[in-house]
Design goal:
With 43 residues, the protein is mainly alpha-helical. It has one domain. The chain is built from 1 helix and no strands. It is rod-shaped and about 65 Å long. The mean pLDDT is 95.
Length: 43
Amino acid sequence: SLEKILERAREDLQKERDELRREKAVRVKDRKTFMELAQKSVQ
């Protein structure tokens, strides 16, 4: 039925959004770590 299709599409979107958020969080953490390392090597 159409409702099931819409429901599944919404779940897929939610899953993709969660994965994107997780990837971004990891990237931000990596960047912070990189900046800390860069500052240490400058000192």
